[in-house]
Write a structure and sequence with these properties.
By secondary structure, the protein is an alpha/beta fold. 42% of the residues lie in helices and 19% in strands. It starts with a strand and ends with a helix. The strands form three sheets. It has a seven-stranded parallel sheet with strand order 3-2-1-4-5-6-7. Strands 11-10-9-12-13-14 form a six-stranded parallel sheet, with helices on both faces.
Length: 389
């Protein structure tokens, strides 16, 4: 059995549990370790207690650097009873720092995988700070035996042009993980017609989306409503709850369990908001978000912006609605004439796609673990060659 040490920046993120489940389903034994954004320690990930390195805060980069420095000094104690892994997977740049230190602590012959699913805005700055960050990533990336990323645009727009990581690449999209043979219905349960409901679910961090949807729903005077669910990034809003409460056609219904609640929350809306201006023109333009796959898997018609990677994805698959420009007027022009017939046509195009377009299954999990096992074998072969030299 392959033994994987999985280092993450947020143990409380549902994406962490999803990746651990994927590795376990593929046949690996996984030890999750890392920081958390929750106030309380995370009791369980993947059936076991993770190794907690402390709390960090979203948007506070200096605090995160200090937390990494403290964790670096405590690795000997924190991992004293941890079995030597066959592979270390480091999610995000900050965890790559710790992965290299742990690799040396365990003997220096462990393949490291760099999992990068977002390009932080600091890495894209053209000033001294940005250049220093990219230089650090290049240096740390030399240790990577594999780069995992979730969108081809990250390779095309960042890793390729900047020459950051010289390692083989595995493209692993943010698909919905489904390990059961049972196939759920992918048709929306929301009755078509007024009010049409747009679901904005997941990481709620985009002030511009909130402003646009507020202006649009007011303009539509009740024909459209927006349901928000998930974890707001409070650092990005002046007062998230008060702002939403003041809008007559917006509702924040709190967090949800992923994947348990996905069918219910997407089944209660007609459209999925797959737009993010958080890092406009950069990471937000390049990513393929979880909500794209989640919404389509459960029959919600996605809305994206033309010219983004999400927009190109939808155009390539012939599904969804593409907004020409980020304005309430453009959104009104796109959705204003929606009726039951046109909605049914959009829905049918989404649900006609093969499930593997949106879903990651057991065979995908096995393929991922097999790829990691290949790194282990290659590392062992290199060690034998060095010993014989």
């Amino acid at each position: 059995m392959l033994h994987v040490l999985y280092l993450v920046h947020d143990l409380s993120d549902p994406a962490t549990a999803r990746r651990v489940a994927m590795l376990q389903a593929g046949g690996a034994d996984v030890v999750p370790a890392g920081f958390r954004r929750s106030r309380e320690p995370v009791a369980e990930v993947g059936g076991g207690r993770p190794i907690d390195l402390g709390m960090t805060h979203d948007g506070r980069f200096a605090q995160r650097l200090a937390a990494i420095a403290r964790a670096n000094l405590a690795l000997g104690t924190k991992f004293k009873h941890t079995r030597k892994p066959d592979v270390i997977v480091a999610r995000n740049l900050e965890m790559l720092v710790l992965a290299r230190r742990l690799c040396a602590q365990f003997g220096g012959d462990i393949p490291i995988v760099y999992e990068c699913l977002d390009i932080h805005r600091l890495l894209l700055r053209q000033d001294a700070a940005g250049r220093a960050m990219r230089m650090a990533e290049r240096r740390l990336g030399r240790a990577a035996a594999l780069l995992i990323t979730s969108s081809p645009a990250f390779l095309r727009e960042y890793f390729g042009p900047y020459g950051q990581v010289d390692a083989p690449v595995l493209l692993l999209e943010n698909k919905v993980l489904e390990l059961s043979d049972a196939r759920l219905s992918s048709v929306s349960n929301a009755p078509p017609g007024k009010p049409w409901k747009i679901g904005w679910f997941g990481a709620l961090r985009c002030r511009r989306s909130l402003e646009l949807l507020s202006a649009f729903t007011r303009c539509m005077q009740g024909r459209f409503e927006v349901v928000l669910r998930g974890r707001p990034a409070y650092s990005e809003f002046d007062d998230f709850e008060a702002t939403v409460a003041a809008e007559p056609y917006l509702r924040f219904e709190g967090p949800y369990r992923n994947p348990d609640d996905l069918a219910a929350i997407y089944g209660a809306v007609h459209f999925a908001w797959a737009i993010d201006f958080f890092e406009d023109g950069l990471n937000s333009k390049w990513l393929l978000p979880n909500r794209l796959y989640e919404g389509c898997r459960h029959g919600a018609v996605p809305i994206a912006i033309e010219g983004t990677e999400t927009g190109r994805f939808l155009k390539r698959h012939g599904v969804g609605l593409l907004l020409s420009e980020p304005s309430a007027d453009a959104l009104a022009a796109l959705l204003g004439s929606m009726d039951a017939t046109s909605f049914a046509e959009h829905c049918a195009r989404v649900t006609a796609k093969p499930s593997e377009t949106w879903v990651c299954g057991l065979e995908d999990c096995r393929a991922l673990v097999a790829r990691l096992e290949g790194l282990k074998r290659a590392g062992a072969a290199d060690a034998l060659l060095e010993a014989a030299a």
